[in-house]
Amino acid sequence: MSDAPILVVDDDSSIRATISEILELEGYPVEVATNGAEALKSIERARPALVLLDMRMPVLDGWGFARELQQRGLHLPVLVMTAAQNARRWAEEIGADGYIAKPFELDELLVAVERRYGPPPR
Amino acid sequence: MSAITLLQFFAQALFVVIFVVVAFDAVRRPRRATIDIALLFAVVSLAVAEGWLTSALDVTPGRWLSAISGSLLMALPYLLLRLVDDFTRVPRWLARGALVAFVLAVVGLFALPSPLPGWIALVYVIDFVGLEVYGAVKFLQEAARSSGVTRRRMEAVAAGSFLLGLVILAAGFAIVAPRLDWLWSGVANLSALASGVAYFLGFAPPSILRRAWQEPELRAFLGRAANLPRLPTTRAIVREFEAGAAAALGAPAASIGRWDESDGMLYFFHQEGNATAIPEPDPLDQPRFVNTPDTLAIVPGVTLGGRSFAEQRAIFSEDAARDDPANAAVYASSGALAVLAAPITAGSRRLGVLTVYAPSAPIFAEDDLQLVQLLADQAAVILESRALIDEAARVQAREEAARLKDDFLSAAAHDLKTPLTTLVAQAQLLERRAQRQPAAPADAEGIQRIVRESQRLRDLVLELLDASRAEQGRLVGLVEPVDIVDLAREICGRHSSERHRCLVDADGPVVGEYDPLRISQMVENLVENAVKYSPAGGEVRVKVSREGETGRLSVSDQGIGIPPADLPFIFGRFHRGTNVDDRRFSGMGLGLFICRGIAEEHGGRIWVESPAGRGTTFHVEMPLAAGVLTT
Fold this sequence. Notes:
The complex is a heterodimer. By secondary structure, chain A is of the alpha/beta class. Chain A has helices at residues 13-26, 36-46, 62-71, 87-93, 106-117, and strands spanning 6-9, 30-33, 50-53, 78-82, 98-101. Helices cover 44% and strands 17% of the residues of chain A. By secondary structure, chain B is α+β, with helices and mostly antiparallel strands. Helix content of chain B is 58%, strand content 13%.
């Protein structure tokens, strides 16, 4: 497949860094954003193949980000990752392709990513 | 027959008719007031009958006959005084004096030569007119004091007394100026007619008139009644209702007893300004009365109100002390001679009792029982709606509390899972790296993240645990002398930076008996908050002082302040600021709840001032010694 990156959107810097490193170790290209607004900018520049999306974020949250995607007519696979109880409902609400609940096992994350992105390009 | 004779005949006939009506009433309900009224009209009717007889038989009234009709005339003011006494109070000496004057007048009429010498006749007129005027004034005073139907009745009676005085006055003028005889006798007859009507309406108003006089007050009260359940307190509702019910019945006071199912007592609010006297309790008996600063509680069945409640029927007593002698003192202290009581019941639910009382018996009539029952039913509706409104508010408050708690718990769960996410994933990542690249150097950044996030998790867990200790009042442990100034300097020093200066103002050490760990925690929390919410370059000031036996500490910042709507809640368990983006700052938002617990467990208090746009100041006040409330 292409070398399109995976976009990790989370306001918590530790989570952002940890997920990035896990994915990079497996050979996935990664981009990061700290909120929905940054993620939108990053999409135009980096054209990611998959978005890992936290829901509760300042400036522009997961719902706002998904709405904006829809309005721009962009169809991107989105994987919701949240610590909230109703992860599944939120994922359905924004028409995401699935969800993983925080805290997650490393393999849980990798399986979910591979199912949507495919194996790492390198 | 001239107009005046016709008028005279008409007036006389009216008096006789009224006499028949009131006599019938007195026979049916032989009470002091009804008998006095019947006697008054009997005397007038006798005089009238005597006049008719003498003119029908065409005899000139002889000496004895004149004396008899004179005696009847002189009985009028004395009977009026008795009626005054029935409705209000007449001094004992005056009542006795009037009786003596009446007896002397009769003796004089029979013993002295007829016609009476001028000065003696003058004494008779003065006695008559004086008592009539006294009665009229007393009734006017009573009218001013009362309301509704009673006011109308007292006004009518006062008018009757003035008019009767006028009759005698006109008769006097007729002797002084006989040339205007037609005028005086016209005035006298008209006044007599009017006074008869006024007395009748005042002393023995027909039911239909009583109703008509009650109606305006009743209508006004029922108009207000719809709003009563929305008054702020039950006490306010009861007060308004009592005033309305008393006014509708023309009584000075009414009182509602509310039934408390839990202890089986009826609770009456004390009348404004005076507590009810209650009988000495029999030590062997269960107390039948309980006085509290606010209420008088009675056992159902005790007093006429309690009896009405226990028997679930309306009760009318013209003389409460006579009908219920055991509680005479209670009635005396609340100024109750006559009592009307009706149970307040909604369907099968007993809610209480409405009692209306008056210091004189004839204010009430038997058919007022229906009106009292009607008012009691209205009270049932109002108390029931009040209960429903209260219940709805309680349910709403419970739901709101449950919602706040749910929100808090899901926010807390979210907050705990965030550092946990890094911990789990990062630890597994380290493990995988070590397996795949055993020779690679240690991942310093990854290890640092684990350390940082585990500390964050520790802080959150400790905060939750402290909040739960605060809930139980078990935050404060062992106390020892602590210098708050020293402690504040140390904490301030640690938080002072280029961005925010933290300064301590104090004149000298302030040493108190405190738990050093908890006091540090509190000051740290307040200073940390102040620093967090300060703009760049903003100063944080900590003031510590000693005021008598109290240590005071305040922490001020120049930050965004707290919205007034949030102020009442910021020390609450499940509250987070509405103008604070909680992602920027760590913590569960339980810090101030814990601070409050620490201050209060030291016997002190904490409060906040946040004038719009002028930053925020937290104040803490704690006794220096022995203020600790340890469990």
